[in-house]
Amino acid sequence: MMGKTKEPALRPYAQYALASIRLFNGATALVAPTVLIQRLEGTTPPPPAAVYAFRLFGIRTVLLGLHMFTDSGDKLQEGLREGLLIHSSDTMTAALLGIRGMVSPRTSALLTAISATNVALCLRAWKQSR
């Protein structure tokens, strides 16, 4: 009986790239939300609700990033599935904010691209971890 040739193990670059992006973006949103808001929208001072939202986003994203570095096996698979839902939701939200004119087209495009990149990395990390 001929066995299936096993593919060489892929290095989990997508997992580490996703974790790094999450940690950087999350930490920045957590500790310097006004800097991000001003760079995205140029509003000075930024609305308090935006600062609050960025800090919520920040801690969530830091925790997601840490899990990519520490989890393995079934726990990693679960985190990647949840991450796919989270990043897909982020992508749709960023696009809709632009479509509805709630943020500038530039900001919408940037946020949509970042979130879509996270979706792609999450899918790749899931494939690599299987």
List the helices and strands and how they pair.
Elements (H helix, E strand, L loop, with lengths): L12 H19 L1 H9 L6 H23 L2 H27 L5 H25 L1
Describe this structure in words.
The chain is mainly alpha-helical and 130 residues long. Helices cover 79% and strands 0% of the residues. α1 packs antiparallel against α3, α1 packs antiparallel against α5 and α4 runs antiparallel to α5. It starts with 12 loop residues before the first helix and ends with a helix.
Brief rundown of the structure:
The protein is built from five helices and no strands. The chain is mostly helical. The mean pLDDT is 89.
Average residue pLDDT: 89
Unreliable stretches covering 5 or more consecutive residues: none
Radius of gyration, in Å, reads 17 Å
**Helix coverage percent of residues?**
over 70%
Order of helices and strands: HHHHH
- Overall structural class, as computed from helix and strand content, comes to mainly alpha
Helix segment count?
5
Q: Tell me the major beta sheet.
A: none
End-to-end span in angstroms? 25 Å
Strand segment tally: 0
Global morphology: globular
